[in-house]
Design a protein that fits this description.
The chain has 199 residues and is mostly helical. The protein has helices at 3-26, 33-40, 44-50, 54-74, 82-99, 101-113, 115-140, 146-169, 176-188. It is built from nine helices and no strands. The radius of gyration is 19 Å and the shape is globular. 25% of the residues are buried.
């Protein structure tokens, strides 16, 4: 990444961080683009170049967290057992929650009240699952099975969603690490039933 791209990325992240500080402090609806631009010390036109809407600012936080989780997966060597590589994904999400708890709680409050944002989140989740499935296929080499990769990616995203939703529904009162352990234990011990035809 060149110097210009690095500066642009730094500005992009600073604007998003500033916006979320305002969302947490005074609420999403009460925060205007003009207030965000002023706090980030950029002009409104500059802000619009990076984020055309307030919704895009919110989506960027989720996107960054999912990208960090994907980076954690891709950082695992191809020799790493798949289950361990996938745990790196869940661990990354857990660390993101721990480091950004106030922002994440504010984020999900915004999502619950904004239909358009929920649709955008669903799109981000779908795209991320597709990326993960493709990476699982690549790691599988000659034994690649698209159905296996798709189900594995979907299962991993479901685990993430359950952890995040359980944590936010509790207002962040329960340690996310405890939720993660309980969720994974249910899966490991086959407590969760799998749809099975009769007979």
């Amino acid at each position: 990444m060149g110097l210009r791209e690095t500066k642009m990325e730094r500005t992009r992240r600073f604007i998003a961080d500033t916006a979320f500080d305002l969302f947490v402090a005074q609420g999403y609806d009460a925060t205007t683009i003009e207030q965000i631009a002023a706090a980030a010390e950029v002009g409104p036109r500059t802000l619009y170049r990076y984020y055309p809407t307030k919704e895009a600012l919110v989506a960027s936080f989720v996107d960054n967290g999912l990208n960090a989780a994907m980076d954690a997966f891709e950082a695992q060597s191809d020799d790493t057992p798949l289950s361990e590589a996938l745990y790196a994904v869940v661990d990354s999400v857990e660390r993101t929650i721990t480091a950004n708890s106030a922002r994440l709680l504010a984020l999900y409050e915004i999502f619950y009240r904004t239909t358009g944002l929920r649709a955008g989140l669903a799109d981000l989740d779908w795209s991320w699952r597709q990326r993960l499935a493709q990476e699982i296929l690549r790691r599988s080499g000659d034994t690649a099975d698209p159905l296996f990769a798709t189900l594995t990616a979907a299962s991993t995203m479901n685990v993430i969603e359950v952890i995040v939703q359980t944590w936010t529904a509790d207002g962040g009162a329960t340690d996310v690490a405890d939720i993660t352990r309980a969720t994974l234990k249910l899966l490991r011990t086959n407590t969760i039933p799998v749809p099975t035809p009769a007979g």
